[in-house]
Each structure stands twice: as C-alpha cells, then as structure tokens.
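TA notes, week 10

Several of you asked for a full example with nothing omitted. So below is the full record: structure tokens for the whole chain, then the designed sequence directly under it. When grading your own attempts, check the secondary structure regions first.
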C-alpha cells in the first residue's frame, strides 16, 4: 500500500452492523457521540483509532487500503456506523520497528509501544474514509485521504481489538508567503531535475500538473519522491512548510546526484520484500 496522487472519489459506500462509536467507551469521554463532532478529549488529548502501517501518509494524498484482519474489519464496521456529523477517520502511523502483534499491553507507556515488538513513530496523519467497498467474504477495500497531522502521546486502554491513540492535532503554521514561494520554486526545480534523472530525459513533462500552494507541493513531493520511510517520516514531522521545503530541497539534490552517479532508478527495499500482511 502506498499513497498516490489520485482524484478523490465521490461519497462513501458503507455496510456494517449495529452502531458503535470507536472513539467512545474511552476514559474521560462525556456525553453521546453526536455531541462530540471532533471526538472525545481528555486534558487536550483526542482519542483516535490507529492503523499502524509500513508507510507514511501525508495530508491531501490518497491511500487505498485492503482490509482483511478481523480487528480492522471491526474498525471499518465501527466507522461506517458513526453518526453523519462525525468524521470517519483513523490515524495512520508508521511502524518504526517490529510488527504489530496482539493488542496493547498493560506495560504500554510513553515510548509508544504495542504488542510484544511494535514501536510506532510519534507523528502520524489522520486518514478520512471516502469510499468503502465490502467484499462478499467480509473484507473491505477503502479509499482514504490524508487530512491532518497529529502527535501520538500514548495508547489508550479499552475493549476495542484495535489500537486507540491519545493524540494532539498539529497545526500547519503559515510562514512568510514570499519566503515560501521562493523555497517552493527551488523545490519544484529540484524535483523536476530529479524526475529527469529517473526518466533519463532532458525534457520536462508538460502534461504534469504541479500544485501552486507551497504546503500542498511539500506534501506531494514528500509522498512521491523515492525516499526511505525514515526520510518521509522526518518530512512529515517538520514543524512547518518552510522547514519541510528546505529539507526536501536538500534531499532531492542528494538523490539526483546519487542517481546520476549510479545510473539506476531506486526501488524501496519494502517493494522487494514479501509483505507480512496487506493491512
């Protein structure tokens, strides 16, 4: 599974059992779900269902998912039954180390660990479910779109079979427009050079539409350049657009220089390995 720059589909399709709010039944939740359009909060912390993955999701990027594990089928069923005024979203957080096994343990703490060997990155991105297709055998195909970044503060203990995180939403501070514009132009030029090296051509693709908004451009470049998970995660964690653009300019120049020397198109190691789980 990987993020792709695709048009957003229209309207969700959903099927599921009886209604249940995956963000209710949590410590500190008060009042019915319909009264909490942003989800329950506790001391400024929001509770959000988590979907650990071996990829990084960025705001505005499309992430298709195939869901077959029973616990995540349950999550999808819970999301489909949320009241209409609540967002159908969950948190995508990249796996730092290990594999997701079992449920959160009693010893789960600020180190953001789960199961016996899973370690998660601190910064993630909420995925809004736009389309749900239920398959005859109970599996689901999802079309999701990245919405907003969050910081994972810890894991909440509850009866859900999937992980629930205590999170805080991260702002996307606006910097100086002129400075952002200058950096965006530099990143765009570096990205086009990077693409020329990959395609082994000196011509630009005039058919490509690149965003004018510096923040949108920073997310698109981060998601589409062939970077390691660690590099992508570092870009997601950058505090603002200017910092992200500066980091991308350096990364793109480094990658273009390396590719020019080795004369090879990079392939992520994860694409060569047999995944343990499509989830």
């Amino acid at each position: 599974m990987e993020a792709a720059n695709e048009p957003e589909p229209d309207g969700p399709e959903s099927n599921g059992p009886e209604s249940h709010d995956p963000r209710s039944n949590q410590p500190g939740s008060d009042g019915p779900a319909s009264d909490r359009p942003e989800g329950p909060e506790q001391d400024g912390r929001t509770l959000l269902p988590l979907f650990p993955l071996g990829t990084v999701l960025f705001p505005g990027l499309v992430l298709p998912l195939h869901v077959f594990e029973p616990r995540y089928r349950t999550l999808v069923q819970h999301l489909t039954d949320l009241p209409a005024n609540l967002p159908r979203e969950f948190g995508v957080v990249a796996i730092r180390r290990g594999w997701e096994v079992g449920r959160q343990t009693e010893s789960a703490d600020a180190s953001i660990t789960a199961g016996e060997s899973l370690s998660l990155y601190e910064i993630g991105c909420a995925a809004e479910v736009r389309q749900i297709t239920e398959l005859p055998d109970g599996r689901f195909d999802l079309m999701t779109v990245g919405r907003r970044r969050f910081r994972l503060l810890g894991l909440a203990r509850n009866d859900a079979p999937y992980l629930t995180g205590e999170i805080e939403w991260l702002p996307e501070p606006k910097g100086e427009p002129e400075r952002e514009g200058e950096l965006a132009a530099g990143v765009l030029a570096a990205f086009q050079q990077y693409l020329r090296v990959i395609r082994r051509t000196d011509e630009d693709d005039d058919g490509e539409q690149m965003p004018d908004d510096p923040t949108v451009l920073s997310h698109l470049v981060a998601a589409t350049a062939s970077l390691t998970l660690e590099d992508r995660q570092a870009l997601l964690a950058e505090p603002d657009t200017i910092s992200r653009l500066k980091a991308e300019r350096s990364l793109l120049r480094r990658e273009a220089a390396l590719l020019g020397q080795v004369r090879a198109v990079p392939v992520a190691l994860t694409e060569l390995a047999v995944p343990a789980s499509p989830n």
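The first helix runs from residue 70 to 80. Use that as a sanity check on your answer.
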